[in-house]
Automatic annotation (TrEMBL), chain A:
GO terms for biological process: epoxygenase P450 pathway; xenobiotic metabolic process. This is Distal membrane-arm assembly complex protein 2. Pfam families: p450. Keywords: Heme, Iron, Metal-binding. The keyword Hydrolase does not apply. It comes from Ovis ammon polii. Its cofactor is heme. Interacts with incompletely assembled mitochondrial NADH:ubiquinone oxidoreductase complex (complex I). GO terms for cellular component: cytoplasm.
From TrEMBL, chain B:
Pfam families: DAO. The keyword Oxidoreductase applies. Associates with components of the mitochondrial respiratory chain complex I. Its main location: mitochondrion. GO terms for biological process: mitochondrial respiratory chain complex I assembly. Residues 65-455 form the FAD dependent oxidoreductase domain. This is FAD-dependent oxidoreductase domain-containing protein 1. It comes from the Eukaryota. InterPro entries: FAD-dep_OxRdtase, FAD/NAD-bd_sf. Keywords: Electron transport, FAD, Flavoprotein, Membrane, Mitochondrion, Mitochondrion inner membrane, Oxidoreductase, Respiratory chain, Transmembrane, Transmembrane helix, Transport. Its cofactor is FAD.
Amino acid sequence: MDAFLTRMQQVETTSTTLRYGLLVLLKYPPVTAELTQQEIDRVVGPERWPCQGYRAQTPHTDAVLHEILRFADILPLGVPRAVTQDTQFSRYHMPKSLRLVAPVWNRGTSGIRGLSKAVDPEGSQRKGRTLLQFLTDHFYDVEAVREYLLRKQVLKVQKKNRSFTYIEERYGPYVAGAYFVLKQGGAVKFRDREWMRANEQGLSSLEFRKLQEVPVEAVDASGCAINYQGLDNLLALKELQSLSLQRCPHVDDWCLGRLYHLADSLQELSLAGCPRISERGLACLHHLQNLRRLDISDLPAVSNPGLTQILVEEMLPHCEVLGADWAQGLKVGPEEQSPDAAGSPIPA
Amino acid sequence: MLRRAVRLRLGQCLSGRGLGTYRGGSTLDCDGKVSKIKKKIQSIFPGRAWSPLYDTSHLPPERSDVVIVGGGVLGLSVAYWLKRLEKQQGAIQVLVVERDHTYARASTVLSVGGIRQQFSLPENVQLSLFSAEFLRNINEYLAVVDDPPLDLQFNPSGYLLLASEEGAAIMECNVKIQRQEGAKVCLMSPEQLQKKFPWINTEGVALASYGLENEGWFDPWCLLQGLRRKLQSMGVLFCQGEVTRFISSSSHMETASGEQVTLKRIHEVHVKMDHSQEFQPVECALVVNAAGAWSGQIAELAGVGTGPPGTMQGTKLPVEPRKRYVYLWHCPQGPGLEAPLVADPSGAYFRREGLGNNYLGSCSPTEEEEPDPGNLEVDYDFFQEKVWPRLAQRVPAFETLKVRSAWAGYYDYNTFDQNGVVGPHPLVINMYFATGFSGHGLQQAPAVGRAVAEMMLEGHFQTINLSPFLFGRFYFGEKAQEHCIL
């Protein structure tokens, strides 16, 4: 049985390829059979047998044969081979009798690295290639590069805001929230402890084991890349009293709509300098009835800072709102301009 | 061949007149027609200026895989998801036909722009939830390189629906369904309501449901422009014209139960240009009816409803335009920044607009009071008699208000059950519907677009199952009634 199968393996590919080849030649008579036949008649002649030696002189037939082999791809995998002695090939060192299988088919071209192999197999190993050559191998258009870079930036932010389910299950929500903030570059203050910041050595798990039951009181996430998804980690901190989201580039109105989860405990909130927050998001802060200090200064997306300040103060009567001066944005009236006009000297 | 061409052109020029005029004799050269004909004949000869090709750049293309009738938010959403879910980049050619490029009467831009999850059907809640997620991440979905990010002006203030004694049980039931689907809604008693919103008069209110997240209102024009821009970058063709005719072919088939049915397949869509009789027959494989308030007319053109009543062939698309007013008023002592979109049990609703104590609101008229949808004129008496008293009763501060302006828009009102129609027609096999949402189409557009695109590409719904919204329900009488309609 084994012998039969081995024999079949040797014969099967050749016979199937021959069958495919005949089928293809039958399907395209004007192009292949006549031209190929004409070429063979011309080069080989009616007396001699065609053989491998004529390949160089019959380029059309050669091309047809190659195309048949490409089209009827019976076994896209090369037969396994082994090296007989230690070999060095380009960057790769192969010890004796290492089995190699060469993927002949274009399965290797999926993915960004494979594309360059398909286009120019030797090219990627050459040294001294410019950036432009690298880009042309991998992208079809300049716009594709830019879309790729944009996509990468978005994915980077999303990766930073993933939820740490393992830590949450193991150490509890307080430690998970603290870990999230520290990883982003912020600072955390547990109850009755000092402010903690991530140091160069990283975050040690030893401390966290001690802090499992200790609630987090204050979070300083200034400048961190927290977004809507990442806020999940912060909203689990039910005893949070002070939250600082200053200058966070991804905190927008949708995020403010989620802060009602912290309504029971939050007393201090700072949103200064966030580029995406507008007065529409500030309208959701009315849930935070325990808020005593709110900082909404320097919000570039708020259309009317003075008026917004007044409205927010009305909305949260027990809260001290720091922000724009109420007179900001008001224009000087006409009666204040006349003393200047009267004071100007009359030319002689 | 030249002689044949000459004879053909002569024939075309003279076909209208007939031989009688020549026998008459002296009226040969009237209006210089003969000299014109002579010029035309001379131009055929080689060396003269005869161009058999004429400029069609103002016309839509001659063929397109998908033709979407209607360029409002639903039509554009279907186009977006078709291009996004296609298997290979550039595989599907999409043409969006919009009659009015200024969108002067389109329901999308005249809408109040609210989005809520407080519906009674779980499918509606799921649609709104996905649409909220789409709007939240709109700059990832609709990103175009080099263009500024979109600012939807979303107000996450939520919806506050009030219920009287009779409606309280239904409201509780609805809130349970909404919470099951993942909406964040809380129920409030009249006391809690008074504490939270002191400007409300809670007389007659037994229960209130307040949406805490993913609810509010936004700028629909911005969404429309964002979709348009992204679609143009994805290669979707836009054309301004009116669909006047469908050329289709019918085949008579027998169902499994031996009934005779006639299946129709649309082959061509005739798109007529503005202010002219010129039209372009666009060959297409699929047609999407997203014409909003005028979907009924488009469906009639395709032959939907032409048959004996009581059969599937005789079932019309029950979508008709209904006029709704929106009034903008100023009230200096009105509710502050925290005001959500409040909906009274009587049907009146209002929301805050901007920072200057301006409010928008209206009320849906009853069946007897329905205004004539022939034009978009505003009836201010309706505000005086129907809207203002209800608002003033609910919010006492609104007793002193001043109407600044008003406008009217159409609801693509589904007279059957006030819910949308999606999916293919059972008999006109390549026409898909995405219409009939009766006032909540804008907020569900991204999710509905995805569902219709999945139906067109895969043949079944993949993410949200909208089988209760298929066309067949009009024939079988299965209502998917939506109770929370504003």
